[in-house]
Amino acid sequence: MTDRAVPASELYTDEFVADPYPTFARLRTDAPVCPVSSLRFDQYLITRLDDAKAALTDPRLSKDLYGPGQHYLRIFGPNSEGLNKNMLNSDPPEHTRLRRVVSQAFAPRRIEALRPRVAEIVDDLLDKIVPQGQADLMRDFAIPLPMMVISDLLGIPATDHDRVLDWTQVIRTSGSSRRPPEQERAAVQEAQLRLNHYLADLVQAKRGNPADDMISALIEACDHDGTLAESELVTTTFLLLFAGHQTTADFLGNATVALLTNPDQLELLRAKPDLLPQAIEELLRFDGPLPVASPRIATEDIEYQGVRIPRGSIVGVVINSANHDPEHFADPDRLDLCRDRGPHIGFGHGVHYCLGVSLARMEAQIGIGALLRRLPDPRLAVPVEQLRRLPAASPFRGLLELPVQFS
């Protein structure tokens, strides 16, 4: 076991992005708490499941990166605070207050009422895809599905869906274009500003014309209940918009690839569609869309696995490594749709456990179930090694494109 710092350049390569799991296995064995050297800040990666769960509930690891040191600004740039200072990046009691405001909108009963609308969106998307015999399932299905669902839930007008999607995709795919870095940063900052202004304008419009949607409910919490500050309206709306579609879109893409490259499991699920809820959990464990939990900062010197993490260091809990920990999952690198759900942390752990878990599970079950029913003999249109993925610098694990053929 070693605590030698690993250069970030050794971890975040194209080969790593294509298949990070051999690297995760090595780190779990050789450096379960791994210092990562970079030019911007000290970072430590935690890769074993028991340590990951402990870190995700450790009060010494703060999510408030906008506090002293302004770590979030150093990581994500000058325009990040206007959109990202929200419950995801806060600690109790602020996190508790903000989460309570929006939790009612994600109550399982309310989410279940959305099932017919989700099924309608899925069918409409597939009606356009099926006759073509081929599709880019990211562009044509995995991305628009959760974006349309969360937009409906928030109250974003259908006429604005396309431009909101365009802005979020610029942010999501940052670093994937061939533009010079300065142009790429400028494009992302422009998208952030436009989205920020759009959401601020939408909040004001909803004030004058409230409806049965989540933004109107947030305004009510601000104006009448006093539980939400004015500045928090836009940041909370952005979090719900982005978190409500980004990870679900990437999960749908990753899950489809996992099934197409494990044909025995694909046929099992076709033959036994009642396995779908269990299969969703295994697919999330197998190749989740959020490989590393959003960053935390050590508020004091702490120690994990005998490794000292100095105060002020950034700590990344590697969810996708923890979910392949052989101490908790037998043969963890094998996709097994009959596997018991087990202790996976694909939806997080502790007070920041995913608020939209019911919605994400429902969209995944309806979406993947429909793909299995309606796409005859689906197959990748390119070798799996040639699939274009989000860049190494992205906090998400997902695909830029998912070309498939079916007949």
TrEMBL record:
Q: What InterPro entries does the entry give?
A: Cyt_P450, Cyt_P450_B, Cyt_P450_CS, Cyt_P450_sf
Tell me one GO biological process term.
antibiotic biosynthetic process
* Lineage top rank: taxon: Bacteria
Q: Which UniProt keywords apply?
A: Heme, Iron, Metal-binding, Monooxygenase, Oxidoreductase
Q: Which Pfam families match?
A: p450
Keyword hit for Metal-binding: yes
- Please list the GO terms describing molecular function: heme binding; iron ion binding; monooxygenase activity; oxidoreductase activity, acting on paired donors, with incorporation or reduction of molecular oxygen
SUPFAM superfamilies per UniProt? Cytochrome P450
Q: Which residues form a coiled coil?
A: none
Q: Which family does it belong to?
A: Belongs to the cytochrome P450 family.
- Please give the PANTHER family that the UniProt record associates with this protein: CYTOCHROME P450 YJIB-RELATED, P450, PUTATIVE (EUROFUNG)-RELATED
In Swiss-Prot or TrEMBL terms, this protein is called: Cytochrome P450 hydroxylase
Originating organism: Planosporangium flavigriseum
